Amino acid sequence: MTQPTTIRRAPAAPDLLDTALMLAAHGIPALPLRAGKVPFGNCPTCTGNVCGGRPNMKTPGPCQCPGVCHAWAAATTDPTVLTSRPWASAWRQAAAVAYHPGGAGLTVVDLDNAAAVAWARATLPATQTVATTRGEHWIYQGAMRSVNAVRPGVDIKSAMAYARWLGPGTGTMTALPDAVRALLVKDPSTARRAPQPLSVPLSGGQGECPHRTSAYLDRGIRMAEQRITEAPGAVHTTVYRTFLAVLSTHGRCGCLTDTHVARLFTAAQAKGETARHCTDAWTNARTTLGL
Questions:
Q1: What is the DSSP string of the chain?
Q2: For the whole model, what pTM was predicted?
Q3: What is the rounded average pLDDT of the residues 7-14?
């Protein structure tokens, strides 16, 4: 008797929906991407965002569309939504899985070429790294505003953006550093203002920092003073960026006192900055960080 022929199938390609469900289970909002790494467009009901949902908003707005219709704003951790009928067609057409870094409390530094990777290795703290087709994704714990082209070959993808999922990568994820936050800051005007007497410095708050030791804070202030004191040039910019770095670390926890701020102002004025500029730079740094 002739034995039936056994048909051996080639291994199936990774299931994109399974990947999305895995991400969702880890609290990472996922969504499908079409070929070309682009999200699915508006459905007929939402064409032209007439529904009020706009991808540049923090949520899809008043739109109640259950489909994957508003780019990063459609990303979800709800497995019921990911497997629902409106999403089924998208998954059948999908070419990749993306995720919303900001929705997971993450920031992706997208390094688009070898030069950008070399810059990151020389400038940024090591963290979890994922290889891409042209460079690397450096992933940090912490969310921030997303901006493209913060420097040649470098994009920041976090809040209100999506990044392609390329696997878990290598290395240990570390906290979002000030060096990355500072990439979004444009240098302030170099126009000099008339000197004014120093009034009471603008305080970042009072009390003991709940997440840092007093020694850590003191060391940070000393490092900030040193950075200003040793600036070889561009003092105006150095002062602003130093104030920004101090506030980004301690401005929200209430540990900065007037004494700490006065030390920074004194270091800046010793380099030739006016009291008025110090006050303006401090205020501008607070405004930039939303303090």
A1: -PPPPPPPPPPPPPPHHHHHHHHHHTT--EEEEETTTEE----GGGGGGTTS--TTSSS-TT----SS-SGGGG-B--HHHHTSHHHHHHHHH-SEEEE-TGGGTEEEEEE-SHHHHHHHHHHSPP-EEEE-SSSEEEEEES--B-EEEEETTEEEEBBB--EE-----BS--EEPPHHHHGGGPPPPP----------SPPP---S--SSS-HHHHHHHHHHHHHHHHT--S-HHHHHHHHHHHHHHHHTTTT---HHHHHHHHHHHHHTT--HHHHHHHHHHHHHHTT-
A2: 0.61
A3: 32
